[in-house]
Design a protein that fits this description.
Elements (H helix, E strand, L loop, with lengths): L2 H12 L8 E2 L26 E6 L9 E3 L2 E9 L13 H9 L4 H12 E2 L8 E9 L5 E10 L5 E2 L10 E2 L3 E6 L3 E6 L4 E6 L16 E2 L3 E6 L6 E6 L5 E6 L15 E4 L4 E7 L1 E6 L5 E8 L8 E2 L4 E4 L10 E4 L5 E2 L12 E5 L10 E3 L2 E5 L4 E6 L5 E6 L12 E3 L2 E5 L4 E6 L6 E6 L9 E3 L2 E5 L3 E5 L4
Parallel strand pairs: 20-24
Antiparallel strand pairs: 1-3, 2-36, 3-4, 4-6, 5-8, 6-7, 9-10, 10-11, 11-12, 13-14, 14-15, 15-16, 17-18, 18-19, 19-20, 21-22, 22-23, 23-25, 26-27, 27-28, 28-29, 30-31, 31-32, 32-33, 34-35, 35-36
Helix pairs in contact: 2-3
Length: about 475
């Protein structure tokens, strides 16, 4: 990359408060914060209002679109034949409880739940085509596409998952695509293959499938793979593909070591850290793979990605229901085991702990001194980022909506995209004020991108460019 290009990336990733621009280079945008102040997004839209273009995307996938200058990139998996289609709502625990009330054992009930919700490689025996698409950001026209891999799916997936859930990343020179349990694929911005490396497949808890996107810093690409057999964190040279390190992740005994969280590059005044979340714990590493600190007591499911503000990084694990949703704020400079003792809610290195604050699937949003945590069942909790105290709690839209996409913010507003395809626009602040509800009338699980004053939303079959139109 040119020196000017590196300066652009450095500014995007290091500024204290991300602002809108022409780049949304990774899951949740610049610095992974999902903030786009200055974007001037419209308050209202629909499938035909304030839509510059809407195009059909071949295959299926819940990876987020990314944007670099005048190009949009996204991945998809083309499955031949029938497959279990996704549906909105909470899956698993409801049917499991119902069946056990009918007298089935837990194993018998789990077998029926899996038959309803899990797509196995026995069902999907035909080859899958993993695709990378490049679209013109102004028109939506497909400029090129590249088949990254074709072959048998390496494992099953939950029907709400897809084989293209991991979001690609770009640094303005290359595009990095992680296909879980298959490999890491790198192309130029024009689609030419640069290098790739293949991974051994490992089983995932209950055949839920994979989800962790890669993270990048100035020199390295980081791949996190928490699974039932061998959990590890690996780093590769961005230009060469050479493995720089691979460290095994030590998981507390008694926990099933599968995870779906994306690692987070945390840059602060003292150092750069790679913060990861696994079942039961969060672990931070330096850029050579050495463990810096470890926070235990995270007893939920490791799906949400960490997020930072100027004072700390917020980590946690979620759950489908109940209070098992620990959310903690870790301060810069932490070292060693910083696990809180039972009953503690803060320490020298942990600013605060909320035992029931983390979402199940969406990642939290930190914006203007408040942390927005949208649960899968539509309950929104807002916390003070300095103290961890709850500011308010509200059921978004009054009820009936479920959420998988992560929230984003722009110009004093917070946006919440439901699985049903409705975006709830609320005012950022200390009270719940709903400004608009905007429907696209189609399932939406992917987190959107914001660039060049426009919002890019992926639904089940389409990609939209939404902005103020004449």
């Amino acid at each position: 990359m040119t020196r000017q290009g590196w300066i652009v990336v450095a500014l995007l990733l290091s500024c204290g408060q991300p602002v809108a621009g022409q780049h949304w280079p990774q899951f949740r945008g610049p610095d992974g914060r999902a903030i786009a102040d200055g974007a001037q997004l419209p308050d209202t839209w629909s499938a035909d209002e304030n839509v510059t273009w809407a195009v059909t995307i071949g295959g299926t996938g819940w990876s987020s679109p990314i944007v670099w200058e005048d190009r949009v990139y996204l991945t998809s998996a083309i499955i031949q034949g029938e497959y279990k289609a996704p549906e909105p709502g909470i899956f698993g625990n409801d049917l499991l409880a119902e069946l056990m009330e009918q007298g089935l054992t837990q194993d018998e009930a789990m077998e029926q739940v899996s038959a309803r919700d899990i797509e196995t490689t026995t069902h999907e025996s035909a080859p899958v085509r993993w695709m990378l698409y490049c679209l013109d950001a102004a028109t939506g026209r497909t400029l090129w596409f590249e088949e990254l891999h074709r072959g048998q799916a390496p494992g099953g997936r939950h029907r709400k998952n897809s084989y293209a859930l991991e979001t690609p990343v770009t640094d303005g020179e290359y595009i990095y695509v992680h296909i879980g349990n298959i490999g890491l694929f790198v192309t130029s911005l024009s689609g030419e293959p640069v290098w790739s490396t293949r991974f051994d497949p490992y089983p995932i808890y209950l055949d839920f499938g994979t989800a962790s996107s890669v993270a990048v810093d100035d020199e390295l690409i980081y791949v996190l793979n928490d699974n039932l057999t061998r959990s590890y964190l690996s780093a590769y040279g961005k230009g060469s593909g050479i493995e720089v390190f691979s460290v095994e992740r030590l998981v507390p005994e008694g926990f099933f070591p599968s995870g779906w969280s994306t690692p987070y590059v945390w840059r602060h005044a003292q150092r750069t850290e790679l913060v990861t979340v696994g079942l039961g714990h969060a672990i931070s590493y330096d850029q050579e793979g050495n463990e810096l600190w470890r926070l235990g007591g995270l007893s939920g499911q490791p799906t949400p990605t960490p997020v930072a503000d100027d004072q700390h990084v917020c980590v946690g694990t979620g759950a489908q229901g109940g209070p098992n949703r620990p959310l903690a704020a870790v301060q810069p400079g932490a070292e060693g085991d910083i696990t809180l003792a039972e009953g503690e809610t803060d320490s020298e290195h942990v600013a605060w702990l909320q035992p029931a604050g983390m979402p199940y699937v969406p990642s939290p949003l930190v914006y203007r001194g408040r942390l927005y945590s949208i649960f899968d069942n539509g309950i929104l909790n807002v916390f003070d980022t300095h103290t961890g105290q709850r500011v308010y709690r509200e059921r978004v839209g009054g009820g009936g909506a479920s959420f998988a996409a992560s929230p984003w913010a722009a110009d004093g507003k917070v946006y919440l995209l439901s699985e049903q395809g409705d975006t709830f626009v609320i005012s950022a602040g200390d009270t719940y004020e709903e400004l608009a509800v905007n429907s696209l009338d189609e399932l939406a699980f992917a987190s959107p991108a914001v660039a060049d004053g426009a919002l890019f939303i992926r639904t089940m079959t389409k990609l939209y460019r939404i902005e103020e139109t004449p």
